[in-house]
Records
---
Amino acid sequence: MSLQPPKEMEGVLLVDKPKGLTSHDVVYHLRRKLQMKKIGHAGTLDPMATGVLVMLIGKATRISQYLMSVDKVYEGEATLGVITDSQDAEGEIMETRPVPELAEAHVRETMKTFLGDQYQIPPMHSAIKIGGVKLYHLARKGEVVEREPRFIRIAAFDLLSFALPKLTFRLDCTKGTYVRTVAGDLGQKLGPGAHLSALRRTASGKFTIDQCLPLDQIEALSLPEIEKRLIPVYQAAPSVAL
């Protein structure tokens, strides 16, 4: 009598991604922990960003497109007066400018101009491919190429705190929105320029940061404990017929 192989885990695992890891690094950690290859994620976070990373375990990778297409909510920090080539803290400083005394009411009014449907030009420091080459590879060579604007929608852009030269905000937006580009564009509209100095994703569709567990805590769990945390596919994406 042949032994049946152990049933492979399946479902959605919500991870609070730590700063400093790529989204693929998280995939690697989970593949090693769960001893399985079929693991993906629904929506990349840059290494400097933390927060909600929706991990797809086993056959749940089939609902990737559905879960990637949902709206996202972020909390971020912009530092005015410092412009970087990547529009975030990981890039090289290109220019520093004095930061004038800005009225909070003026900042809030300027943020309102970002609301609604619009087209956004992706940054050169991105993983978008042009001619089969990722843009950030070209950017590292100092090359700048024309990028196709992408349709995005910003539902909310709220000021959370304001202490020059830094401000913190909450952004509710569609998938594919580059938050660092929003921060950089806000800085340009305000005058001194800006870069995104911190970012945390607090929601991806219906999944929120309160449902997530930090990666190191997940790695400390037993496999049965991790399996208990998996959200079944029919709950994660009820409208998708598999």
---
Amino acid sequence: MKVTFYYVRHGETLFNDLRIMQGKCDSPLTVKGIEQAEETASVLRHVHFDHVFCSSSERAWDTAQMICRYHDNEPVCLKELKEFDFGELDGEPIDRYYSLIQPHRIEDDWTDIGGENVPLFIERADKGFARMLSACEDGDTVLMVSHGSFFAHLLKTHFVNIDQQEYIARKHSEKKPFIPNCGIAVFTYEDGVYKLLSEPQTAQEFRIREDKTVHFVYIRHGETVFNVQKRLQGYCDSPLTEKGIQQAEERAEKLKDMHFDCAYVSSTERTRDTAEILLQGHGLTAIPDKRLREVCFGDLESQKYESIWDTIYPMHMLNDWSKVKGEDYEDLKERLHAFLRDSIDAAKDGDTILLVSHGDLYMVLLQYLFGIHKEELYQKANEAGKNPAGNCGMFRFSWQNGTFTYEKLMHEEEE
């Protein structure tokens, strides 16, 4: 019988962050750990799992639950998959107790302080594998969510095609963890033999190993009432004008022969109405996504910007509206990253995706993906005598194996 295992370490925890020994004791996922789990969940969404098993520690169970949001599986918790037991040093700060910890690491024996050694680990790991394999059939694929030191001991005790010491030394020389939080490794079990097929990789490293290209068409919504009144329009909303409807219809005519495999739209009505016009005849309905909403301008939402332009200009140029309870650049990068990650992972090679969103978010996208700051963008657009992000303007960009490229900015589009 042959079974393929996808091994995922849990996301970063409080004790990981504080550098505290964390074996059979537990601590919750940090915000970063949750983000890591979401990233790994996204990149594994197309992998079919016949079974999902995880350590009974909450940090592993929470990670497994997040990965399973894209699957029909319910994680089965096994105590045999818990982290290596460090005995009385479990829960102690690593730096403070380094002189006690290091000899036990070297000997790989913690039994004198109530923990495990290698023979005890082999005994329980084998019990865990026996329970998992008893549920499997030949050809099954299993997701296994466990821990870092657990995997390091599998390298030593179970995998026949890898030298644990060489592997760890190589990772140290590369200044990389031997299995990063939410890192993904792939190995097989076949008739009693375990072989490592893919060394632990971050979700990003795992993603770009696939030869895939995804194309994006980004279109700003049509003119709105607040656009005409020159009001700041971020999370707030106003309807399309007659001109805005006409702009969307004109853009739809230009897009009629373009094939879209999927479409996403900001959740505001002005973008949803624009998307509905653009997609007439395409047989698609745009999926609303709040991560595509316009920049939040906080307390300044709906104010006429001309009268306060000198005040807001620095915030506008820096994409930082935090002083008025709005978003800053880090907030915007985070949601753009999450959206692009999910849309790319959901797409197939060669897909073209329509995005209907907003003008200021477009400029943030340019800075985030291509390093084009607003000052440079405005200068180029002014020299061309055009709006840098006109209503229903179009911008096309692509992702290929981890790299984003584009051809023309919105204001450079041919009439």
